[in-house]
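// run 5 | inverse folding | seed 20
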């Protein structure tokens, strides 16, 4: 009888040991955000209506139709008067940038944000095991990641990744790289540095598909500190639950809808094609198909499957319906949407049937900071934190789009109640948001352009002054 007892006991103990070991090892593969720092340029780089008008006036290749197009784009963009531009714009040299202009723009961001996050976290540069830098539109040698390593004297065995050309969705690609390294390495710290170099990339021509980028993109950046160390788990802000990347680069129309190129006169710029919304929708839908089962409760998936089945059987599928049909609020508490433009935010809001409360962080970020490319998600997240919306256990869905064409998304779980850390870029201004109106003054000041005749139009001397 005693022998039989041990014959049953030993396998049970072994099974319990294997389960404990699996759970224990899984904790070493978690990906935590310890801290993040969004970049706030100095006030002398702020783009007011008057300054934007001066820049437009000195762009000599524009005609009346282009002025009208720009006015319409700016007025409907959702961008306010407190966004930031590179210093080259204020020097009036956007038509002839140098390599050093792009480097200086990035180093100003590095000096500010990397220094702040290291000082606040108490983590030494030599404790950083992984460095991922994503700046899409500038490539130099030595790389920007090497400049950071040299500036902060990081370790010689640091794992380094320097990404270019990845577009607005690059910060989640960087997080995915960190997550992959964390899966096979214990007790590591990682730093993700994300921004965009605008200095060398101003478009001075009159192609409307390329002018639009000048209206939307603004200076910004973010530094994110991540770890899989158990000892730092209680100090973490967020824990990564899942991450899904979708790439439609094999489709020619998706590949070409968002591309850096030259116009007919050989002037370089960033082309945004008319088929961009369609390409983004396709990538978004494919991405949702994968991530939905990971984040939604079974009851919601079953409800959606039942409704879809009944509609098919009754041949009652709504024509033109572009909504997801799934209630994402059953698995997600907050929506962190890339600020690619007002149309992007509106489109995602409609597709996911979100409320204005859900869209407020993205709208306010677009208004205050503009489209800061891959860094924009972190400004949106900081807004939620500054508004004290993020409570322990909440889930945050991040959604980003980028050239290629890509749609990347992930879900973070809030590890502890967040009340807006000392480095939050919104901390001193959050009480003034949301403002009573998001309307900018461009139409009021320059609306007279709409009534001009192309055959008699001439830019007045006091125009845009």
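// decoded
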């Amino acid at each position: 009888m005693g022998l039989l007892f041990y014959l049953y006991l030993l396998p049970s103990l072994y099974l319990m040991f294997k389960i404990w070991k699996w759970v224990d090892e899984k904790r070493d593969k978690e990906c935590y955000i310890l801290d993040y720092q969004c970049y706030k340029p100095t006030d002398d780089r702020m783009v007011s209506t008057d300054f934007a008008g001066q820049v437009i006036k000195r762009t000599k290749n524009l005609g009346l139709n282009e002025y009208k197009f720009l006015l319409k784009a700016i007025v409907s963009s959702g961008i306010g008067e407190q966004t930031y531009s590179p210093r080259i714009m204020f020097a009036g040299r956007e038509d002839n940038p140098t390599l050093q202009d792009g480097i200086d723009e990035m180093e100003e961001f590095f000096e500010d944000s990397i220094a702040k996050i290291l000082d606040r976290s108490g983590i030494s540069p030599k404790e950083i095991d992984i460095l991922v830098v994503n700046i899409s539109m500038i490539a130099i040698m030595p790389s920007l990641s090497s400049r950071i390593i040299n500036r902060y004297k990081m370790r010689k065995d640091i794992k380094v990744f320097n990404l270019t050309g990845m577009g607005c969705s690059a910060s989640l690609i960087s997080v995915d790289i960190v997550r992959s390294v964390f899966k096979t390495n214990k007790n590591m710290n990682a730093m993700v540095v994300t921004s965009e170099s605008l200095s060398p990339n101003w478009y001075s021509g009159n192609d409307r598909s390329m002018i639009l980028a000048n209206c939307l993109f603004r200076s910004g950046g973010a530094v994110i500190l991540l770890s899989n160390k158990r000892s730092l788990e209680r100090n973490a802000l967020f824990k990564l639950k899942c991450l899904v990347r979708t790439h439609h680069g094999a489709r020619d129309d998706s590949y070409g809808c968002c591309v850096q190129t030259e116009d007919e006169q050989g002037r370089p710029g960033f082309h945004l094609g008319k088929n961009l919304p369609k390409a983004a929708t396709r990538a978004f839908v494919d991405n949702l198909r994968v991530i939905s089962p990971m984040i939604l409760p079974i009851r919601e998936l079953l409800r959606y499957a039942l409704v879809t089945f009944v509609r098919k059987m009754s041949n009652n599928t709504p024509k033109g319906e572009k909504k997801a049909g799934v209630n994402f609020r059953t698995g997600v508490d907050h929506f962190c949407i890339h600020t690619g433009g007002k149309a992007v935010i509106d489109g995602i809001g409609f597709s996911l049937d979100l409320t204005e409360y859900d869209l407020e962080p993205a709208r306010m970020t677009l208004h205050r900071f503009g489209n800061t490319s891959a860094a924009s998600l972190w400004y949106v997240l900081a807004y939620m934190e500054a508004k004290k919306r993020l409570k322990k256990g909440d889930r945050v869905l991040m959604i980003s789009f980028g050239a290629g064409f890509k749609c990347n998304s992930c879900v973070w779980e809030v590890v502890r109640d967040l009340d807006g850390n000392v480095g939050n870029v919104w901390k001193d201004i959050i009480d003034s948001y949301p403002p009573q109106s998001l309307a900018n003054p461009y139409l009021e000041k320059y609306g007279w352009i709409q009534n001009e005749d192309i055959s008699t139009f001439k830019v007045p001397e006091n125009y845009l002054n």
